[in-house]
Write a structure and sequence with these properties.
The chain has 142 residues and is of the alpha+beta class. Helices cover 33% and strands 35% of the residues. The chain contains four helices and six strands, in the order E-E-E-H-H-E-E-H-H-E. The chain folds into two domains: 7-40, no CATH class; 49-141, GMP Synthetase, Chain A, domain 3, CATH 3.30.300.20. The chain has helices at residues 36-40, 49-71, 109-122, 124-128; strands at 7-12, 19-24, 30-34, 78-88, 92-103, 133-141. The termini are far apart. GO terms for molecular function: peroxidase activity. InterPro entries: KH_dom-like_a/b, OsmC/Ohr_fam, OsmC/Ohrsf, OsmC_Ohr_Peroxiredoxin, Peroxiredoxin_OsmC. This is Osmotically inducible protein OsmC.
């Protein structure tokens, strides 16, 4: 069954001096200010497309990894994933770096790294970002 989620943005003004508001329509979680300055300098309490992509990538990877672990017979206690999405003005989004640590009873380091690597490429958001460099640092917590 397909699922569609919706967000929208209203932008006023030019790129450099203008500003917008992005709303999460499907969840109703809120409306967030976006600006060029938040995208290229300090965020100043505003968000950017890259931060929204980073949130999506970290959540998707965590879900894909947890699912892959379950398929291999492991039950993770906790998976913590951070995504750093890089934007270069004039070039675009150049990469997403995932940093993940997890507590998983009974798994070996080799199996952990194998499953993490498969989840990195198997995550649907990674697939959507296939044109950029995606890297992963995965740490097994004991």
């Amino acid at each position: 069954m397909a699922a569609t989620r919706t967000a929208h943005t209203v932008w006023n003004g030019n790129l450099i001096e203008g500003a917008g508001k992005t709303s999460f329509d499907s969840s109703g979680l809120g409306t967030y200010d976006v600006t060029w300055k938040a995208r290229t300098e300090q965020s100043g309490g505003k968000t950017s497309p890259e931060e929204l992509i980073a949130a999506a990538h970290s959540a998707c990877f965590s879900m894909a990894f947890s699912h892959a672990l379950a398929g291999a017979g492991y039950a993770p206690e906790e998976v913590r994933t951070k995504a750093d999405v890089t934007f270069v003005p004039g070039t675009g989004i150049t990469g997403s770096h995932l940093t993940m640590s997890a507590k998983i009873p009974g798994i070996t380091e080799e199996e952990f790294q194998r499953i993490a690597g498969e989840a990195k490429t198997g995550c649907p958001v990674s697939g959507a970002l296939a044109s950029i460099d995606i890297t992963l640092d995965a740490t097994l917590d004991n």
